[in-house]
Amino acid sequence: MAKSKSSDRSKKSSSGANAARLKPADFIKQKARTLPIGDCYLGSDPDNPGRTTAVVTRIRPSGNIAACYFMIDKNCFGVTDAFCRVNMTPDNWKDELEESTSLYHLKPASYAEIHNLIFGAIEFAEEAGLEPASTFDIAEYMLDDDSDESIPLMTFDFGRNGKHYVEISQYTPEAMGVVEGLKEKLGDKFEFKITDPKAPWSIRNKPTQPVFPIEPFSYDYPRYPAEPTVKHPFIAETFLDPANYFSIPADTTANILALPPDEAAADIAAVMLYATGRTYRQIADGSDDSSPNSAIMHSLIHLTAIKSDKALDALTDLAHQSFDFIEAHLGDYATELVPEALMTASGDNIGSITRIIDSPGLDAFNRFYAFKALALKYKHQPELRDKIKEALRAHLERLAADLPATRACSAEYAGLIMGLFDDMQLSELLPEIKTVYDTGFVDTSICGDYTTIAANMTKPVNDGELTTSSIEEYYSQLKRSQDIAESR
Description:
- This protein is elongated.
- It is of the alpha+beta class.
- Helix 7 packs parallel to helix 9 (261-285), helix 11 runs antiparallel to helix 13 and helix 16 (385-402) packs parallel to helix 18.
- Helix 6 (173-186) links the parallel strand 6 (164-168) and strand 7.
- The strands form two sheets. Strands 4-3-2-1-5 form a five-stranded antiparallel β-sheet, sandwiched between helices.
- The longest helix is centred in the middle third of the chain and has 25 residues, at 261-285.
- It has helices spanning 5-20, 24-31, 90-104, 111-127, 136-139, 173-186, 233-240, 250-258, 261-285, 295-303, 312-319, 323-330, 334-346, 350-357, 364-380, 385-402, 411-424, 430-437, 444-447, 450-456, 471-487, and strands at 37-42, 51-59, 65-73, 78-88, 107-109, 164-168, 190-194.
């Protein structure tokens, strides 16, 4: 039986409707590779030459455009994202291309160039155990199969100096976890740089560097008090009051300093332990919703002026807290307040500081703060210099033995402390310092190489990091912080 024309038209119409009903993802997977390749474009990122955007278009039978954008990190991660537009009119595509050209700095490119760039970046990322973004599962069908031998083979340089390279723009545990994963996969065959302005001062804008082992943080937390047990309640009430976030009334400070030093220090220690117990768990899991206060900040500021060892246990506990804890309570003030409070509270007791320095599981910065307390003692307590010098010599000898295994130390910590030897002008310890450098486990991006340290020993004495501040000066700094915060 012959087919009627109307029957034919009906079938064609039905077939067209089925094609139109394809979801965009299904259309790309089933149809894209059957469409001719149209114009292609390759972009650039002026702020990061390792990043680029590639655009591949396909021409539909109607003349409409299917376009796919591929976000590519040539330094390490390969294809980091992809998205497609499957049915744009030529006019719509013209408008979008104009906008995309401005946004991604696009220039015309050959399909072969883009194909080789994308699959080369993916292969390079796979060496580091990294897979393309999940969006590539669909977007790859906008590309010809990589086994197609008709595509000319082209090569590109990936990474930096032949190594996988990562820039960390947000200094977070997650970002550093990525670095750790890369270290596990690649060893020292990759480099990274931290550009986050909020990162701790000593590692901002580091030059490219090898990744050293990180000492795992650990601390067996004590049982903290449910309430601060104090002899003078006004101390706890004032320090814990959120209204006193940036300052303490001057008459309150005068009253505290008028107390017997041991009584004032004991009460301040009680406030510190109470404030720690209220917040350390929540800071660790990111759920801290307690009322904001600066109790630990106020405690340290006042302890810099109170010569008593009654707060030494609380300060030792503080030195064992996590990086996030110190950052949450003290921010950039930690680098001044923690060492100075430790110096004052420990008096002539050098061992109380060296025990902190030698404790396993400390955050590198907290270990550095304890070391800086010794350096401050060397500067401001000259009667202890001979004892401190020998303690430092013994510490350098331990570092030379323990750095390769990251036992109660790390390359980051070693890098942090080296500049303080220049500030102390301890040229007689240069042989021991060189032995530490010779381990290869000193992060020279923090402190410079051994020749830099040795050369600085011959320069005029510079207090550098070894200055101290008064209570009034600390609160003046906080007042400036308050003014800035309120002006935003």
